[in-house]
Amino acid sequence: MAKGRVSRDDWTMAALRALARGGVAAVAVDALARELDVTRGSFYWHFENRDALLVAALETWEQRATTDVIAALRDVTDPSTRARALFAEALGSEEIAGLEPALVAHTAHPAVAAVVARVTQVRLGFLTEVFAGLDFTPRAARHRALAAYAAYLGWLELRRTSPEAAPEALLDDPGADAALDHLVSMLQTPVRPQAAKD
Protein backbone atom coordinates (compact mmCIF):
# COMPACT_ATOMS: atom_id res chain seq x y z
CA MET A 1 0.00 0.00 0.00
CA ALA A 2 1.36 3.42 -0.94
CA LYS A 3 2.76 5.44 1.93
CA GLY A 4 0.26 7.98 3.22
CA ARG A 5 -2.62 6.63 1.14
CA VAL A 6 -4.71 4.69 3.59
CA SER A 7 -8.41 4.99 4.28
CA ARG A 8 -10.40 5.09 7.49
CA ASP A 9 -11.34 1.47 6.76
CA ASP A 10 -7.65 0.52 6.51
CA TRP A 11 -7.13 1.92 10.01
CA THR A 12 -10.19 0.18 11.46
CA MET A 13 -9.22 -3.18 9.93
CA ALA A 14 -5.67 -2.78 11.26
CA ALA A 15 -7.15 -2.06 14.68
CA LEU A 16 -9.30 -5.21 14.49
CA ARG A 17 -6.26 -7.32 13.54
CA ALA A 18 -4.42 -5.83 16.52
CA LEU A 19 -7.36 -6.62 18.80
CA ALA A 20 -7.28 -10.24 17.61
CA ARG A 21 -3.52 -10.47 18.26
CA GLY A 22 -3.27 -8.75 21.61
CA GLY A 23 -6.51 -7.23 22.84
CA VAL A 24 -7.27 -3.58 23.48
CA ALA A 25 -3.70 -2.77 24.54
CA ALA A 26 -2.46 -3.79 21.08
CA VAL A 27 -4.49 -1.02 19.44
CA ALA A 28 -1.60 1.46 19.55
CA VAL A 29 -1.47 4.26 17.00
CA ASP A 30 2.30 4.13 16.44
CA ALA A 31 2.31 0.34 15.96
CA LEU A 32 -0.62 0.52 13.54
CA ALA A 33 1.03 3.35 11.61
CA ARG A 34 4.12 1.17 11.20
CA GLU A 35 1.98 -1.76 10.05
CA LEU A 36 0.23 0.47 7.50
CA ASP A 37 3.52 2.16 6.54
CA VAL A 38 2.17 5.66 7.16
CA THR A 39 2.93 8.51 9.51
CA ARG A 40 1.04 9.19 12.72
CA GLY A 41 -0.45 12.23 10.96
CA SER A 42 -2.47 9.91 8.72
CA PHE A 43 -4.24 8.64 11.81
CA TYR A 44 -5.33 12.13 12.86
CA TRP A 45 -6.74 12.77 9.42
CA HIS A 46 -9.34 10.08 10.14
CA PHE A 47 -9.70 9.94 13.94
CA GLU A 48 -9.68 12.36 16.84
CA ASN A 49 -7.95 9.92 19.17
CA ARG A 50 -7.26 6.24 19.87
CA ASP A 51 -10.63 5.74 21.56
CA ALA A 52 -12.39 6.97 18.42
CA LEU A 53 -10.43 4.41 16.39
CA LEU A 54 -11.34 1.64 18.82
CA VAL A 55 -15.05 2.51 18.67
CA ALA A 56 -14.95 2.72 14.86
CA ALA A 57 -13.21 -0.67 14.65
CA LEU A 58 -15.77 -2.28 16.95
CA GLU A 59 -18.64 -0.77 14.97
CA THR A 60 -17.08 -2.13 11.76
CA TRP A 61 -16.96 -5.60 13.31
CA GLU A 62 -20.58 -5.28 14.43
CA GLN A 63 -21.71 -4.23 10.96
CA ARG A 64 -19.81 -6.89 9.02
CA ALA A 65 -20.13 -9.84 11.38
CA THR A 66 -23.71 -9.30 12.55
CA THR A 67 -25.83 -6.69 10.77
CA ASP A 68 -24.74 -7.67 7.24
CA VAL A 69 -24.94 -11.42 7.94
CA ILE A 70 -28.46 -11.18 9.36
CA ALA A 71 -29.61 -8.97 6.49
CA ALA A 72 -28.36 -11.52 3.93
CA LEU A 73 -29.99 -14.45 5.75
CA ARG A 74 -33.39 -12.77 5.98
CA ASP A 75 -33.74 -13.53 2.25
CA VAL A 76 -33.53 -17.29 2.97
CA THR A 77 -37.14 -18.33 3.45
CA ASP A 78 -36.83 -22.06 4.22
CA PRO A 79 -36.21 -22.33 8.00
CA SER A 80 -33.96 -25.38 7.82
CA THR A 81 -31.88 -23.92 4.98
CA ARG A 82 -31.62 -20.65 6.89
CA ALA A 83 -30.32 -22.42 10.02
CA ARG A 84 -27.70 -24.35 8.03
CA ALA A 85 -26.68 -21.19 6.11
CA LEU A 86 -26.35 -19.24 9.37
CA PHE A 87 -23.98 -21.77 10.90
CA ALA A 88 -22.04 -22.21 7.69
CA GLU A 89 -21.54 -18.44 7.54
CA ALA A 90 -20.77 -18.02 11.23
CA LEU A 91 -18.32 -20.91 11.37
CA GLY A 92 -16.93 -20.41 7.89
CA SER A 93 -13.89 -18.39 7.04
CA GLU A 94 -13.03 -15.76 9.60
CA GLU A 95 -12.14 -12.39 8.11
CA ILE A 96 -9.77 -11.92 11.05
CA ALA A 97 -8.87 -15.18 12.78
CA GLY A 98 -9.32 -15.14 16.55
CA LEU A 99 -11.10 -11.78 16.68
CA GLU A 100 -14.33 -12.91 18.34
CA PRO A 101 -12.67 -14.86 21.19
CA ALA A 102 -10.33 -11.89 21.73
CA LEU A 103 -13.26 -9.47 21.98
CA VAL A 104 -15.10 -11.71 24.42
CA ALA A 105 -11.93 -11.94 26.51
CA HIS A 106 -11.60 -8.13 26.69
CA THR A 107 -15.08 -7.09 27.79
CA ALA A 108 -13.57 -5.43 30.85
CA HIS A 109 -13.00 -2.46 28.52
CA PRO A 110 -16.22 -0.37 28.42
CA ALA A 111 -16.21 0.15 24.62
CA VAL A 112 -15.71 -3.55 23.96
CA ALA A 113 -18.29 -4.52 26.59
CA ALA A 114 -20.95 -2.25 25.07
CA VAL A 115 -20.53 -3.56 21.52
CA VAL A 116 -20.19 -7.22 22.54
CA ALA A 117 -23.35 -6.92 24.67
CA ARG A 118 -25.26 -5.32 21.79
CA VAL A 119 -24.03 -7.89 19.26
CA THR A 120 -24.83 -10.77 21.61
CA GLN A 121 -28.36 -9.49 22.14
CA VAL A 122 -28.98 -9.08 18.40
CA ARG A 123 -27.50 -12.47 17.56
CA LEU A 124 -29.49 -14.26 20.26
CA GLY A 125 -32.63 -12.53 19.03
CA PHE A 126 -32.01 -13.67 15.47
CA LEU A 127 -31.14 -17.21 16.55
CA THR A 128 -34.36 -17.34 18.56
CA GLU A 129 -36.23 -16.24 15.43
CA VAL A 130 -34.47 -18.96 13.39
CA PHE A 131 -35.46 -21.68 15.86
CA ALA A 132 -39.01 -20.35 16.16
CA GLY A 133 -39.19 -20.76 12.37
CA LEU A 134 -38.37 -24.43 12.93
CA ASP A 135 -41.55 -24.72 15.03
CA PHE A 136 -39.97 -24.60 18.48
CA THR A 137 -42.04 -22.89 21.16
CA PRO A 138 -40.81 -19.41 22.15
CA ARG A 139 -39.16 -20.78 25.30
CA ALA A 140 -37.56 -23.74 23.49
CA ALA A 141 -36.42 -21.44 20.66
CA ARG A 142 -34.71 -19.18 23.19
CA HIS A 143 -33.02 -22.15 24.86
CA ARG A 144 -31.84 -23.44 21.46
CA ALA A 145 -30.53 -19.96 20.66
CA LEU A 146 -28.48 -19.91 23.87
CA ALA A 147 -27.10 -23.40 23.19
CA ALA A 148 -26.33 -22.53 19.57
CA TYR A 149 -24.51 -19.33 20.51
CA ALA A 150 -22.50 -21.11 23.20
CA ALA A 151 -21.60 -23.79 20.63
CA TYR A 152 -20.53 -21.07 18.17
CA LEU A 153 -18.24 -19.37 20.69
CA GLY A 154 -16.81 -22.70 21.78
CA TRP A 155 -16.21 -23.78 18.18
CA LEU A 156 -14.20 -20.62 17.49
CA GLU A 157 -12.23 -21.09 20.70
CA LEU A 158 -11.43 -24.71 19.78
CA ARG A 159 -10.27 -23.55 16.37
CA ARG A 160 -7.99 -20.98 17.96
CA THR A 161 -6.60 -22.89 20.91
CA SER A 162 -6.86 -26.61 20.14
CA PRO A 163 -6.58 -27.27 16.40
CA GLU A 164 -4.70 -30.54 16.99
CA ALA A 165 -7.30 -31.88 19.42
CA ALA A 166 -10.30 -30.66 17.39
CA PRO A 167 -9.20 -30.54 13.74
CA GLU A 168 -12.85 -30.70 12.60
CA ALA A 169 -13.24 -27.11 13.82
CA LEU A 170 -10.72 -26.01 11.16
CA LEU A 171 -12.06 -24.89 7.82
CA ASP A 172 -9.78 -27.05 5.69
CA ASP A 173 -10.19 -30.30 7.66
CA PRO A 174 -11.85 -33.14 5.68
CA GLY A 175 -14.26 -33.70 8.58
CA ALA A 176 -15.32 -30.06 8.95
CA ASP A 177 -18.50 -30.26 6.86
CA ALA A 178 -19.71 -33.43 8.56
CA ALA A 179 -19.03 -31.96 12.01
CA LEU A 180 -20.93 -28.78 11.12
CA ASP A 181 -23.85 -30.80 9.72
CA HIS A 182 -23.94 -32.82 12.95
CA LEU A 183 -24.00 -29.66 15.07
CA VAL A 184 -26.82 -28.12 13.03
CA SER A 185 -28.77 -31.39 13.12
CA MET A 186 -28.41 -31.63 16.91
CA LEU A 187 -29.61 -28.06 17.36
CA GLN A 188 -32.62 -28.63 15.10
CA THR A 189 -33.71 -31.96 16.60
CA PRO A 190 -36.40 -31.69 19.26
CA VAL A 191 -35.57 -33.21 22.63
CA ARG A 192 -37.44 -36.46 23.21
CA PRO A 193 -39.52 -36.50 26.38
CA GLN A 194 -38.04 -38.74 29.04
CA ALA A 195 -39.89 -41.95 29.73
CA ALA A 196 -41.80 -41.95 32.99
CA LYS A 197 -40.01 -43.80 35.75
CA ASP A 198 -41.81 -46.76 37.31
Automatic annotation (TrEMBL):
Residues 28-47 bind DNA. Keywords: DNA-binding, Transcription, Transcription regulation. Pfam families: TetR_N. SUPFAM superfamilies: Homeodomain-like. It comes from the Bacteria. One of its GO terms (molecular function) is DNA binding. Residues 5-65 form the HTH tetR-type domain. This is TetR family transcriptional regulator. The lineage of its organism: Bacteria, Bacillati, Actinomycetota, Actinomycetes, Kitasatosporales.
